[in-house]
Amino acid sequence: MTPDERWRRVQALTEQLEGLPAAERDAALISAADDEVVRRDVLVLLRALEREAEARAAAPRPSEPLAPASLGPYRITGLLGRGGTSTVYGAERDINGTTQRVALKVLHAYLLDAEQIGRFRREQELLARLDHPAVCRLLDAGLTPAQQPYLVIQLVEGEPIDVYANRRRLSVPERIRLVIDVLDALGAAHRSLIVHLDLKPGNLLVTPDGRVHLLDFGTAKLIDPRVDLTTTRHFTPLYAAPEQLRGEPVTTASDIYGLGLVLYELLAGTRPFAAGSIVAVAERAAGATTTAPLAARVTGEAARDRGLPVERLRAILGGDIDVIVAKALAWEPAQRYTTAAAFAADLERYLANRPILARRQTAGYRVRKFAARNARALAVTLVLLAALTGAAAYGWRENRRALSEGRRAETTAGFLQWLIASANPVYGGKRGMTVVELVERAEQRLARGDVADAQVAAALEGSVGAYLFQSGQEARAIPVLNRALERARTSGAAPAALNAATTLGTVHLSRGDCAASIQVSTEADALYRSEAARLPAAVKIGYLISRDQVRDACEDDHSGALTVEGIALLGSVPDEGSDAGMPNRLLKALALNGYVRLLARQGKTGEAAAAAEEGLRLATAEPDGRNVRVALLQSRAAAEYAAGDVAAAARSLDEAASLAESTAAPFEAIRLKVMAGQRLAEAGQTERAVLLAGQALAEAERHASDLTHTRWMILVDAALTYFRAGHCELTPPLLAEADRISGGNMPPRWKGNRLGVEAFCLSRTGRRADAQALAKAAIAAAGSAWAPTSTFRQSLEQVIKTGTF
Q1: What CA–CA distances, in Å, run from 516 to 236, 443, 451, 512, 553?
Q2: Which of 488, 641, 672, 724 could cross-link 496 (Cys pair, CB 3.0–4.6 Å)?
Q3: What does R_g of the chain's alpha carbons equal in angstroms?
Q4: pLDDT score for 541
Q5: What are the DSSP calls for 106-134, one per residue?
Q6: What burial letters (b/e) apply to 301-328, b meaning 16+ CB within 10 Å?
C-alpha cells in the first residue's frame, strides 16, 4: 500500500468510525482494518478530532450585557437569537397608534473594530438595495448608547426550512418547491449584484402559510462587475462552497453550491459529506471528497419525515433529482448552474417530468421523459414507444407480404420520427405538447391510412389502442383496437391480430362487459392455436397470462392453467432483450405477477411470496419498471392478506399507492389508494383508512371524465373501506352511484363485493332479514370467484345463518 493509498484508507475509516460511541470504535476498527499502521493512524486522527471538538466547546466567549429595555423608539420584547457577530432581539414601536413588531440586530460590543463595523454597514446598504417579498426588508438603522450599530429588519415569524419541512412531513416535490421559492429570491439578489454567501437552513425561514424568507445578509458581498475578485472570510463552513473555504474569489456560483447543500439535506435528511470536522472541511475545499448520491445517504428517519418507506424514498432520489443536486454541488464553480434561474428551471422540469438540462441529452432519454410527463402511465407509455420501434419484430415472421424486414423497420422508424417531430412548433406542434396529444395525432394519421403497410399499421394501432386504454380512455381505445384487429386480419399479421384481440378482451373486462370480453378472447384463442408454433415464447406468455384473467373473472374458470403454462415458458426467455415489444425482464415480472395472485388464491402463500420477490427483483432491474413494481406490490399484498398478515398487506399496498402516484394512470393510482385504505381499516388504522378513502373519492371526482366506465370500481372499493372502518352511513350513496355508472353490469367478484357491503351494513343496522337476502345474493353473484377460505365469504355465510357477523 502506497502512502497515498494508506492516507485515503485512514480518512475513509475515520469518517466511518467518527460517529460511533467511543466504546464501540476499537472493535469496529479491528474488524475493518488488518494493517496495524492504518489502525494506529486512525486512532491518532480520531483523538485529534476529539481534542478539536473539546477545544471548540471550551473556548471562552465574550459575555454580552443584559438586553436593554429599549433602543431609540424600539421597546425590546425578548431575545430571538445570538450568532457569531450579532444578537437579534424582538422589538416593537408605536406608529400612529399601531404597534409595529420588528427584529433588531445589534453588533456584538467586542467586535467594534473598523472591519466589523464596515461589514455591518455593508449589510445595511445591501438590504436597502433589495426589493423582493422573500427578502426581509430593512426598516431602520441606528446606534446604541455604547455606539454599537443596529439594524431594524422586518420580523419573520417562521421556522428554519428543514424544521418546517420535517414537522409537516412534506413530500419530496413540496420540499423542492420551497427551494424554488428561495431561488427566486436569490435570483433577485444576484441581479442586484449581491451574493449571500451564508445560505443555510437557519437563514431560510418559512412562515406558517408556507412563504419562504431569506435572512441575514451579514456575510453578503457586492460583486463589482469591473473586478473579478470578490472574497470573503465570514461564512458557515458546513454550507460553504469549496472556493470560499480556500479563500478564493466568490461568485453567484458559491450561492448555488450553498443552496445545493440545503436541498440535499432537505431531500436525503443528512448532508452529503461524512462529517463536519476540520479534516472533512479541508478535504472538501481541496476536492479530495466526493458528493455521495442522495439515495446512498437516506436514513429511516428521513423517510418517516417524508411519509415514505425507505426504499421508496431511495428510488425517488435515485433519478434526475440526484443529477440536479450533483450539478449544483460541482467542485468547480464553472460546472454548476450559471444562475439561480437556471437551477430553478431544472427543478421545475424535474417536477413536470420533463428532460432536465443537467443530464447529457441523449435521444432515448428525451423520448423517455417526453412520454412520461403527462399520462401518469409510465410503463405503458414506454411499452407504446417500444412497440413503435419494435413492431418490425413481428413483421419479419410475417413474410407473406412483399415488403422486406428492412422496409418494415424503416416504415416503423419513420412513423416514430414523424410522431416526435410533430411536437416541434415548426411542424405544427406546440411547446409542452403532451403524450395524449401526440397519440391523438398518431391515431388520426393511422385512421387516414397514411401508413401504407397494413401489418405495420395494425401493430402501431394496437399499441395506440393499448395506450388509450391504460391512460383511462377506454371508449376511444375500443374503435382503435377494433380497427387494428381488422387490419391484422386482412393483412395476415397474426401476431398483431393476437395482440389486438387480447388487449380488447382486457379492455372489455375492465368495463365489466364479460360478454364482449369472452367474444373477442375466443377469437384470440383461435389465433393462438393456429400460430402457436411460430410465436416467440415471450408473445405466448403475454397472451396466456392476459387470457387467464378473463377466464378467472368471466368464465368461472379459476384453475389458473394458462398462467401455469405461461410460467413454464419463462425459462426460455432470457432476461436481456425485448422479444415482445417490451423488456423481457418486465414481461417476466408481469407473468410472475399473475402467478402470485393465482398462488395466493390457492392458499400457497409461501410460494406466492417467493414469486413476488422474484418479480420485484426483475422489475427493479429495469429503469422503467415502476408500474410493474406497483402491480407486484399489490399482488404481494394479496398473498400477505391470504396468509393472515393484514398489517403487512396494508404496508405493501401503502407502498404501492405511494409509488403509483408519480407513474400509474389515474385509475390505478386512485384505486390503489383506496385498497390500501381497506387493509389499513382491517389493521385497526381507521383514521388513516378513512382519510385515504376520502382522498381517493376526491381524486376520482376530479378525473371523472377520464375514468368514465371504471369509476364504479373505486366507489365499491371506497364503500368497502368505509364499512371496514365502521362508517356504514357513508356507503349507500357510493353504492348507488356505482350501480348507476356500471348499469349493474359488474364481473362476479365485484358484484359479490358490492352486494356484500350492503348486506353487512344492513346487518349492523338491525335489518337482519334484508341482510340475509343480500348476503345470499352476494355469494350467488360471486360464485366460485371467492375461494371457500375467503373471510369475506365466510362472514356473509355467518350473516345468512344468524343475521349478524
Answers
A1: 69, 23, 29, 9, 13
A2: 488
A3: 32
A4: 85
A5: EE-GGG-SHHHHHHHHHHHHHHHH---TT
A6: ebbebbebbbebbbbbbeebbbbbbbbb
Least trusted range by pLDDT, from 13-27, 316-330, 332-346, 514-528: 13-27
pLDDT exceeds cutoff 80 at 15: no
Task: With respect to residue 443, please indicate whether it lies within any of the assigned structural domains.
Answer: no
Would you state the cell numbers that stand for residue 716, as one nine-digit string?
365499491
Q: Which residue has the higher pLDDT, 706 or 536?
A: 536
Enumerate the active-site residues.
Answer: 198
Statement to judge: residues 143 and 95 lie in one domain: yes
| Interatomic CA distance for residues 686 and 1, integer angstroms | 60
Taking 80 as the threshold, does the pLDDT of residue 65 lie above it? no
Predicted confidence (pLDDT) per residue in 694-738, tens digit: 888 888 888 777 776 778 889 999 999 999 999 998 899 899 989
Contact at 8 Å (CB) between 774 and 764? no
What average pLDDT does this structure show over 411-416? 48
- 104 and 173 co-located in one domain: no
Indicate if 53 and 128 belong to the same structural domain. no
Q: Model confidence over 597-647: pLDDT tens digits?
A: 889 888 899 999 999 999 999 988 887 788 889 889 989 998 998 888 888
Q: In which domain, by residue range, is 210 found?
A: 159-348
More reliable by pLDDT, 403 or 334: 334
* DSSP sequence for 402-433: SS-HHHHHHHHHHHHHHHHHTTSGGGT--TT-
Do 774 and 732 contact (CB within 8 A), yes or no?
no
* 128: its cell numbers: 436597502
Looking from the CA of 438 toward its CB, the CA atoms found within 13 Å total 27
Backbone angles phi, psi at 78, to 5 degrees: 160, 170
CA 687 to chain centre: 24
Q: Residue 354's CB: how many other CB atoms inside 10 A?
A: 18
Residue 132 and residue 167 in one domain: no
Which uninterrupted H or E stretch holds 50? helix 36-58
Within a domain: 205: yes
Domain termination residue (choose one: 320, 348, 376)? 348
Q: Find the distance separating the first CA and the last CA of the chain, reported in whole Å.
A: 73
Residue 40 falls inside a structural domain: yes
Q: Residue 364 has which C-alpha cell?
A: 432515448
Q: Would you say residue 338 lies in a domain?
A: yes
671: pLDDT strictly greater than 50: yes
Q: Is residue 409's pLDDT more than 80?
A: no
Could you tell me how many residues make up the chain? 805
- Burial readout 778-798 (b: 16 or more C-beta within 10 A, e: otherwise): bbebbeebbeeebebbebbbe
Give the total number of structural domains in the chain.
4
Query: Does residue 54 sit in the same domain as residue 170?
Result: no
Do 700 and 714 touch, CB atoms closer than 8 A?
A: yes
Domain termination site, one of 154, 179, 206: 154
Instruction: Give the integer Cα–Cα distance in Å for 370 and 683.
Output: 40
Examine the pLDDT at 84 and tell me if it is beyond 70.
Answer: no
Residues 7 and 137 in one domain: no
Please say whether the beta carbons of 207 and 128 come within 8 A. Answer: no
Condensed to tens digits (0 to 9), the pLDDT of residues 261-285 reads: 999 999 999 888 754 444 455 455 4
